[in-house]
Amino acid sequence: MNKNILLFLFTAAGLFCNSAFSQATINGEVKNGYGKPIAGANIVLNPFNQTSITDANGFFKIENITSNNYTISISHLGYKTISETIKITKKNISLNFILETDLLNLQTIVVTGTFNPRIQLESSTSVSVINSKSIQQNYPQGTASLLQNIPGTFTDASAGEVFTKVYTRGVSASAEDDTGWYYVSLQEDGLPVSLVLHSYYGPDLFHRLDLTTQKVEAIRGGSASITALNAPGGIYNFISQGIRNEFGGDIQLSNGFQGDGNYLHKIDANIGGPLGNNWFFNAGGHYRQDDGARNTNFTFSKGGQFKFNVIKKNAQGYLKFYGKILDDYTNRYTGVAATNWDSPKPAFGQDFGSTALLMPSFNANIPDGRHLAQGASNSFDPSKGVHAKDLALGFDISQNLGNNWLLKNNIKFSAKDANWQTSISNNFIGLDDFLVSGLSRDFESLFGGDFSAFGNLVFRDANSGNEIARINNLGSLAVFQAEAPSFKYLTDGRLPNDAIMGTATWLKYNTAKEWMDQLTFRKKSKNHEFNFGLAGGFSNTSMFTQGSFAYVTYEANPKMLRVTVENPGEPVLALSDSNGVSNYGGLFFVNSRAKVSQLATFVNDRWKVSDYVHLDLGLRYETITHKGSKDRFAPFTQNGGVDGNVNTVYDNGILAPTGQQDNFNYNYNYLSFSGGINYKIDDEAALFARFSKGNKAPELNYYFNNFSNVAINKKGEVQKINQAEFGAKYNLKDFSFTSTLFWSQLKNIGIANFEFDSSNNSIFYTPIQFNTSRTIGLEWESVYSPVQNITFRFNGIIQKPKATKWKVYDAAGSVDTSDDSITDFSGNTLPFNPKLMFNLSNEYEKDKISAFIKWQFMGKRYGNVSNGFKLPAYSIFNAGAGYQISKNLSADILVTNLFNSEGLANFFGANSFGANANGATPEFITANPDASFVVFPVLRRRALIKLNYSF
After folding, report:
1. Where in the chain do CATH 2.60.40.10 domains reside?
2. How many Å apart are CA 551 and CA 503, to the nearest integer?
3. CA distance 788 to 803
4. Whose CA is closest to 648, among 551, 575, 570?
């Protein structure tokens, strides 16, 4: 018995020792080719998916490992991923790894536009990555400004941070200035920033860039047809900072100088670290105050955001809770006047670099047409611009279910609010134009024979009350007798340029409560990775728009005008209030609400045909429902207007609901397909091809803009997007490139123009015409590092955009259809798409010093489909330098538009109220060689000094 006990004790001890020694620990170190430690490298140990991250010194540790054979993978953005097989035979193992620079991130795992994450080289899509280092080389102007660094992406950020345009490969026709993200999806961590889009309500309103962004992944066309909600043109996914094994972060102070000495002050911060028991957190955000690149008498932007995530790792995956609070004011620039169609130059004393042509700051209360009986009013101050608020909370889960099954679910709720208080339009209205008086009231009175708003007009400075000019404008009515209009100054005072500005107060209230979800199941087998799931989103949104005419001087620094009619022997009539606001709520009225649901089911299979060939096939069935209503309206007819005073003309024509509503309830269903193939030549090179048939359902602007006091009796057309691409990817130690030949076709393009009917003082949209465009081209992205510390980058696009079928409706300036016509521009070059666009840069980095210079080239583009006006090519040079002051502290200087380029990014047509770009046909330009027109210049030189403290 004693022998048995002794034997048992020895056996137990032996088992204990074996068990103890079988629990091994891996201690590792990761460096780059220059011997510097790499912080934040991801370590994955399979088959049990144990993970770790290197600390600031490049070290990592994985504990409690049993004796076995493993595959260890090390990856980090900007370095080639490596995988090695190791055998655990002893208690402590030390490993050292050297990661080779991945110049184009072709060995980096991407998660955007794919259901199963993989390295770029093995992907059958055109993918680009902007890492945190490249993000920090950009002046913090906005989302679109950063994305112009991605090859093949056209961006127009001339208006500022918002009201921007982004599109790719000629898929652009409906990406208008007020719906500039029409075909692409702006995402944060894999879900759209906003589910709905309509006039002056786009995703860039609710997105800001700061240190919380780790990288940007972008795909152009291709698999976006089956991986994004109603966005076949591409995906731009901003991925937030993730897990840090040690507590640390960055604090950054920035001070910028721009334009005529305008300032930008910004503070960014991001911190993260472990919370214990495999819990991790990350939090950060920014606050800024920006005077803007152009001259205004108010702060152009101010506000900020806070973002966070909390992550729980477990043996089977992770759970992540995340959120964002955005509370931000910004504005957008309108156009500048120019003359000389062949070589545009600023006109009327304006300047392409500094002129903003926005109304100055003032405080007004304008009656709310929706609630006149209650005496409600809306405060208006154009210095506020757009006040954007967004509260978003989300939950992301990824779990291995066993037997090679994986579950992923990302769900987000958000509550959004955008309040616009700014000016719209800034055209020239000469004092001999009857609109000087006519826009101050409803035209029914004018054409009914009431000319009381004409005669002796007195213009006073709204701030000081001092008289500026006095005119008689009865001669402007001669136009109705087919005679030349005229006016006459009655005193020595003059208005600048003998004109006023054709502008209006632009008041908009937009709200949306949104929920969106992406659920994916993945099953792996020997030769297949099978993904299927559901994606959905629901939005409850509302929109109210009210516009009032405003009297403003037409000059580089506009002033508000208080205007009265002082005819002898008659009562003084006030055409404006004390602030210069006229025709309260009489120019625009839209009051709409809608519920939008988007549901999709998808299936995708990545088939390993051989060790070198992978086939990627996917289908997506999507159904979208738009249900809502829009108020009908009419002028408020009470004698004397809202205040009952017949001598205050400015409140006599306010638009108010009639009680009738036009309802809409339409459903769009479509099936999209995308198939790709990747042939991996070796570990450094691959070829790929893809063909996609995608769809783009209408956005809410179709209902909100196109039906004014008429029934919404038909649904919009689903646009069809067909795309094909063939590309090559090549990755060497000192040279990497990708190039893609593409063909894209866009069909069922609905085109309607914004028009002003002078006969009844109304704004309307012309009947929709359905058109087709086609673009073929070559994109490329390359990096060359001939010697240590020096890198050259070159990316761009050569393309041939064509309007294969294109007709435009000409309403001849009135709602009356008897004089309307349709003009055929089929075969012309597609506007706003350059044939050549590229970025060329040189970077230097050694020890504590870094520097770069970048050349951005934008080729010539037609400003309209008639090809009547061509925007000249331009170049912008950006430069920067940095110095590592200490281990924790660094300083950088960035200069954007170094040589103050006066490039023109956009064109708005003739400089007259209600004009549009399509009106500037070759015939119009020939007949009006000296006419002025409206252009949008790029923003002028901006310099930034940054101090960054890392810990």
Report:
1. 2-101
2. 8
3. 47
4. 575
Per-residue pLDDT, 133: 87
E strands, 66-164, in order: 69-76, 79-87, 92-99, 109-110, 118-119, 127-131, 153-156
Task: Quickly tell me which residue has 């309007």 as its tokens.
Answer: 803
Tokens encoding 663: 């309802």
**Residue ranges of E strands in 362-404:** 364-367, 377-380, 385-402
What are the percentages of helix, strand and coil residues in the chain, rounded to 5?
10, 55, 35
Tokens found for residue 948: 């960054």
How does residue 14 score in pLDDT terms, banded at 50, 70 and 90? very low
Residue positions counted in the chain: 951
pLDDT score, position 567: 96
Tell which residue, 333, 389, 416, has the closest CA to residue 160: 333
Strands (E) across 100-207 are located at: 109-110, 118-119, 127-131, 153-156, 165-168, 184-188, 191-192
CA–CA separation, 723 and 225 (whole Å): 10
Count of Cβ atoms closer than 10 Å to residue 493 Cβ: 15
- Cβ atoms of 911 and 497 within 8 Å: the answer is no
What residues are paired with 721 via a beta bridge? Answer: 694, 746
Model confidence at 8, pLDDT cuts 50, 70, 90, reads very low
Q: 498 in helix, strand or coil?
A: helix
Asked whether 290 and 300 are in contact (CB, 8 A), the reply is yes
Cβ neighbours around 605 below 10 Å, total: 17
Please enumerate in sequence order all residues whose Cβ is within 8 A of that of 409, keeping only pairs 6 or more positions apart, or say none.
395, 396, 397, 517, 518, 519, 520
Residue 693 one-letter amino acid? K
The Cα–Cα gap between 674 and 228 comes to: 12
Q: How far is CA 165 from the centre of its chain?
A: 6
Q: What residue has token string 């099936």? A: 671
Check residue 451 and give its pLDDT. Answer: 87
**CATH 2.40.170.20 region(s) of the chain?**
127-425+505-950
Residue type, 9: L
DSSP label at 344?
-
Instruction: Spell out the residues 6+ positions from residue 344 whose beta carbon is closer than 8 angstroms to its own.
Output: 338, 872, 904, 933, 935
pLDDT (tens digit, 9 = 90+) per residue, 219-274? 999 999 999 999 999 999 999 999 988 899 999 999 999 988 899 999 999 999 99
Q: Would you state the structure tokens that stand for residue 143, as one six-digit string?
A: 């989302």
- Structure tokens, 387: 């006040």
In angstroms, the CA 141 to CA 938 distance is 12
Alpha-carbon separation of residue 634 from 360, 583, 657 (angstroms) = 30, 14, 6
Round to whole Å and give the CA distance between 736 and 259.
38
In the sheet that 79-87 helps form, which strands lie side by side, from edge to edge? 50-53, 42-46, 69-76, 79-87
The tokens 């005819």 sit on which residue?
567
Q: Give yes or no for a contact between 616 and 604, defined as CB atoms under 8 angstroms apart.
A: yes
For residue 636, the cross-strand partners are none
Q: Which of the four CATH numbers 3.30.450.40, 2.60.40.10, 1.10.443.10, 3.40.50.2300 does domain 2-101 have? A: 2.60.40.10
CATH of 127-425+505-950, picked from 2.30.130.10, 2.40.170.20, 3.40.1280.10, 3.40.50.2000, is 2.40.170.20
Place of tokens 């002050």: 265
Give the integer Cα–Cα distance in Å for 296 and 257: 15
Each residue's pLDDT tens digit, 284-302 = 999 999 999 999 999 999 9
Q: What are 99-109's pLDDT values in tens digits?
A: 888 888 888 88
Classify residue 663 by burial, with Cβ atoms within 10 Å: 0-12, 13-18, 19+.
exposed
916 CB-contact burial (10 Å; exposed 0-12 / middle 13-18 / buried 19+): middle
CA–CA distance, 90 with 441 (Å, rounded to integer): 90
Helices then strands (H, E): number in the chain?
Answer: 8, 57
